[in-house]
Amino acid sequence: MKAICAGLALCVCVLSARAALAADGYLLLRLDGHYVKWGSSAFGTHAALRYAFLEKPLRTDGAINCSSMVPVDPLLASSAIAQDAFAREVAAAFALWEEATNISFMRAEDPANADILIGAEGNPSGYAFTNVEYDHQGVGPVRRIAKSLICLNPTRHWKVGFDGNLEAYDIRYTMAHEIGHAIGLDHPSPSGELMSFRYGEDFRGLRAGDVAGAVALYGARGAPVVAAAPKAGAGAPDMALR
């Protein structure tokens, strides 16, 4: 298995120390000591989000990840992936989360209206990264996410589907993993869940821990909304992912 390592170069050593805390197969993202989620700050509540593909270079000062982003066109060209195929795979990745929990996603044609912006790295490294920015004016232990950026390395080879080659990452799997970060989930372990930090091709959908984590944040799809308390052990040191 290969490390997705979406967050920072030292994520393996930081997160392996935290993995023991993820007894339920998930770990909620904490930034500066705060849990983060979209919509209401209450756990177990619905959120409706818009995503878009970057159309021109973007510089985000202060971002830990994806501070320099460009459109995905060169990435698609180098990996021989059609734009419509890429869009379908990204939509399918969002659908995995939408089907599992009380969160909804809609594609926005104008990137300026997007909550989650998708592009390629302007300064390529690693494979894929997510930057999560929260509302610093909020109060309480849970803060509202203000913007999430997802960027893929355009110098890597990408593919649609699994073929056993772990040097080339599947778009849908990788995007589903990064979307998990974008909505407030951390790496729970080295492997076993889609949100684990190692890339593998043993499964292509969400695992039980992934679903449990998303439900803790947004509630179950079609179920009455019940605010949940943070899970035990979630007071680990913050991951430097913003």
Give the SSE map.
Blueprint: E1 2-3, H1 11-18, E2 30-31, E3 34-37, E4 47-53, E5 58-59, E6 68-70, H2 73-78, H3 83-100, E7 103-107, E8 116-121, E9 128-134, E10 142-152, E11 158-159, E12 169-170, H4 171-182, E13 198-199, H5 208-218
Parallel strand pairs: 3-10, 4-7, 4-8, 8-10, 11-12
Antiparallel strand pairs: 1-13, 2-3, 5-6, 6-8, 9-10
Helix pairs in contact: 3-4
Textual characterization of the structure:
With 242 residues, this protein is α/β, with parallel strands linked by helices. The chain has a single domain, classed as Collagenase (Catalytic Domain) (3-Layer(aba) Sandwich), CATH 3.40.390.10. Helices cover 23% and strands 23% of the residues. The protein is built from five helices and 13 strands. The protein has helices at 11-18, 73-78, 83-100, 171-182, 208-218, and strands at residues 2-3, 30-31, 34-37, 47-53, 58-59, 68-70, 103-107, 116-121, 128-134, 142-152, 158-159, 169-170, 198-199. Strands 2, 3, 4, 5, 6, 7, 8, 9 and 10 form a nine-stranded mixed beta sheet that branches. α3 (83-100) crosses α4. The two termini are 25 Å apart. The model is unreliable at 5-21 and 225-242 (pLDDT under 50).
